[in-house]
Amino acid sequence: MEHIRTPKVENVRLVDRISSRKATLGTLYLTATHVIFVENAPDTRKETWILHSQISTIEKQATAASGCPLLIRCKNFQLLQLIIPQERDCHDVYLSLIRLARPVKYEELYCFSFNPQLDKEEREQGWMLINLREEHKRMGLPNPHWQLSDVNRDYRVCDSYPTELYVPKSATAHIIVGSSKFRSRRRFPALSYYHRDNHASICRSSQPLSGFSARCLEDEQMLQAIRKANPGSDFIYVVDTRPKLNAMANRAAGKGYENEDNYSNIKFQFIGIENIHVMRNSLQKMLEVCELKSPSMSDFLWGLENSGWLRHIKAIMDAGIFIAKAVSEEGVSVLVHCSDGWDRTAQVCSVASLLLDPHYRTLRGFMVLIEKDWISFGHKFNHRYGNLDGDPKEISPVIDQFIECVWQLMEQFPCAFEFNERFLIHIQHHIYSCQFGNFLCNSQKERQELKIQERTYSLWAHLWKNRADYMNPLFRADHSQTRGALRLPTTPCNFMYKFWSGMYNRFEKGLQPRQSVTDYLMAVKEETQQLEEEREALEERLEKIQKVQLHHTKVKSKHSEPSKHSGFSTSDNSTANTPQDYSGNMKSFPSRSPSQGDEDSALILTQDNLKSSDPDLSASSDQESGVEDLSCRSPSGGERAPSEDSGKDRDSDEAVFLTA
Amino acid sequence: MAQLLSPGAVLPGIGITSFPFFYPFKGLRLRDAWHFHPPERYYKRTAREVGALVLLPRAVIVPRAADDDALALSARFRRGGRFPVLSYHHALSGTVLLRSSQPLTGPQKRRRAEELLRAGLAGARPGARGFIVDTRSAQAAKQARVTDAGTEAKAAYRGWKRRHRPLERGRPPQESFMCLVEACGDLEQSIDHWLSRLEGCHWLPHVKEALSTTCLAAQVVAHREGACILVHGAEGTDSTLLVTSLAQLILDPLSRTMAGIQELVERDWIQVSGHLAPALCTMPTWPSHLFLDCVWQLGRQFPLSLEFGEGLLLALFEHAYPSPFGTFLCNRRGELWGLRTRTHFLWSGLNQPKEQRRLWSPIYTPSPLAIWPSVEPWSLRLWQGDRPPHLLPWEAHYSIYKEKTELLQPSFSLWAPTLNAGSLDSG
């Protein structure tokens, strides 16, 4: 690769973020696709892999006596602090990464070189796994009220929409085209979700070009047609997800929102979700809080509140809840839009669909949901997640917020989702990784032009293949809580919204709960299943033996195969860890010898490796044991007792106990 | 009970009841230096007698080398007569965790060689050091001299290191708790200011500090072989207990079992301070709330390591309020129970089979390892009930709290903290 100025730098130190004194010595490699740090420690040779596309910012800090620090922030919230001994090497690495992290052509992205060793047929099957036509059939479409329209064939009307769209039967091509001319970027109202129980629907569009007084007959007819498609209701809600002020400001630019006087039988509603710039800054502020070094509880809570992140999450949820209630309880159809109808609209429609339909809470259904509301309706993945070098003002964590909304719901309804937290985290990872073609480009049209399906692989097939990893053992499809629409409490619950440490601090394993209930329950489930199979086999054998005895024949039954079940590993249960830095900035007692902790972390290490099926993820993240070393815990100023016991290896403590 | 123990271990009548204690670690082999009554016999016997956990004997464990005079002397030198006693013995490292109240050094910086501590250290591994964790700030400890108390003078305690880890006690945490309860009960609160309101309550910092001080002490216990760690604050009845009991939960796998936590609460809380005891309404509730919250935080970070579930914590929570609950039970039995049987009642009530589902954790997996929690702000959470419908313990208990404080009669304050304190304080 012509952009790599130096492929290998030795004696680089990787600094531990929590205890900054601790650093591991190793070698840094730059490849065409990854930054790789390999530890020198001969027994572990731990590797940290980072995809170039995950790199968000690279910061070269002032050279110190120990070397030149380089800070790499990743889009999956990993933070890497390297200290490179030579200033020149550091500069070379810096310049190389600046270029590598900002590809200018799609062809440079990892998905075009990524090869999971699948043949052509398997690749095609992978792309067929999630099929929106099937999804429409599942919803009960087409039906007497809704039909498939070919008006957008070859992207003739709107280039950011899919070619296949459902519209009300009474909406003629003339009405659609007329309506599209009255909408930003010609994104006319089209069906997002159809609730077959009561014929109510969720439609989406962009803002109308109403300005201060403009009207469009076809657009008014279009909304009428949506209302008529739901015989159970005599009005529809029009939900503008922007704050009212923003929408009013848009009127000056000839855009704006629907005037209730011009449209018959609509109820207009603003829901103030802030725009992408506010969200980007909010995330930035929250990540700054995450980067604080040993903050106090107050620092953390203040910082979190000032970032406004949870407030924004709540606003999105509230919008979703409003729509879900309108559809399921009132039986009223809803038209949702924001400005262009591809960010907030996508968030809100997908949250509402998730609340309404249990299918979207299954593993496959959730993939369909993302395919439906995000990928097909032209969410600008390339711009929002900065896959190619572009305008930094276009970048915003839109889908991250949706994923977090799902997590917040999972916390509230632990039995309602078939998938677990890991599934969400891996999806988030791959939205930025560019390892699979699903999230490339800004629209279906671009993806088609690029022949994504022929040149790259589908993430959905990859996730589906490893679905055992993503199952929620608590999922119960038949639970009263999980059937039908999810019902949230009516009273405002502020404490319902929590900081998602599992996402934003996920590379600091020491901060995470050390034992995973999910993994434990999955192991129990598997064990139960094995025993069940064994029982069946034994029963069969018993039957055979009884038959043999009945007939008094002398056929000797073979020895049955040895029992397969092996008792699930105890590694789950014995999740060891080592104490962390509890002294803060205060004096602490002298600590034990630096050799401690190795066995413990090894335990965690193997466990992590067992768990993660995703080679890329495990390589880049899960090997990080995250167990803090205490050896450097004691601040220099502290009075130190002479370390009379430094000769002894103290970490055998627990091991001794184990064997005792 | 006394005849079961070797002479010297028990001092009948002098204030030891203010520090009743019994060591729970079954099958433990203690060093000869420590007087020790094998608990198996005790447990077998008491189990026969009452069929459940009862009030523990009025006994404490002290170094074998310390005789009665040394104990009495040490008791006179400590506030409320709470001389250093064994709280926990870590079998792996041979380290002992002691607790006491502050020494009465006074403004003249009185020095009194405490034979008890010296004996404790002498019984440990040769060359081992002692550590003192004072749960007050250095300044507060100094100020305490005005009231004739203070902290250990360096010169008088050779081989001992002292660290100050200030934990707030008394009014601030109590007010934090009330503030939190109110904030959680306020349904009109908008999310815009929710976190700053939570921050304003300052409850979570108490949790963080309690846990990190505990971890610091526990770390020394786990990793300094043969050492002696003495924890004390001012009275030795609130922050001190918080630290010593949480340290046991972190280190001792047996205390994480259902029986273990009940013993721990009985031994360290009900018997010593009266917190969590149904009949004691004069006591503040914050230490027990803080304790339960910290236990919950441990359980959240190590969901498989606790045999009891959130239900038990909630049940204890309820009992932590001064409440007429005990009498209610007594009346039903048609018998006037003494205080002892009433606390006993709490456990036998909780140990009924019908309560199992509510109190036990279904996913408990015994593990002999220590559980070291993360005390970073990201890892701590506001305790919310995990059972639908969105039950928040603070919120639910706000009404209970109000109800019960209104119902309370002064006659319920049976077990005053003056209990048996007389003979020693004068010394």
TrEMBL record, chain A:
Residues 126-504 form the Myotubularin phosphatase domain. GO terms for biological process: phosphatidylinositol dephosphorylation. Keywords: Cytoplasm, Hydrolase, Lipid metabolism. It is found in: Cytoplasm; Endomembrane system. One of its GO terms (cellular component) is endomembrane system. GO terms for molecular function: phosphatidylinositol-3,5-bisphosphate phosphatase activity; phosphatidylinositol-3-phosphate phosphatase activity. The active site is at 338 (phosphocysteine intermediate). SUPFAM superfamilies: (Phosphotyrosine protein) phosphatases II, PH domain-like. Residues 566-596 have a biased composition (Polar residues). The keyword Ion transport does not apply. Residues 641-653 have a biased composition (Basic and acidic residues). CDD domains: PH-GRAM_MTMR7, PTP-MTMR7. Transmembrane segments: none annotated. Its main location: cytoplasm. Residues 307-351 form the Tyrosine specific protein phosphatases domain. Residues 550-660 are annotated as: Disordered. The keyword Cell membrane does not apply. It is a peripheral membrane protein. Substrate binds at residues 275-276, 338-344. Belongs to the protein-tyrosine phosphatase family. Non-receptor class myotubularin subfamily. This is Myotubularin related protein 7.
TrEMBL record, chain B:
It comes from the Eukaryota. One of its GO terms (biological process) is negative regulation of autophagy. GO terms for molecular function: protein phosphatase binding. It holds the Pfam family Myotub-related. GO terms for cellular component: cytoplasm. Residues 13-387 form the Myotubularin phosphatase domain. PANTHER family: MYOTUBULARIN PHOSPHATASE DOMAIN-CONTAINING PROTEIN, MYOTUBULARIN-RELATED. Belongs to the protein-tyrosine phosphatase family. Non-receptor class myotubularin subfamily. This is Myotubularin phosphatase domain-containing protein. It comes from Suricata suricatta.
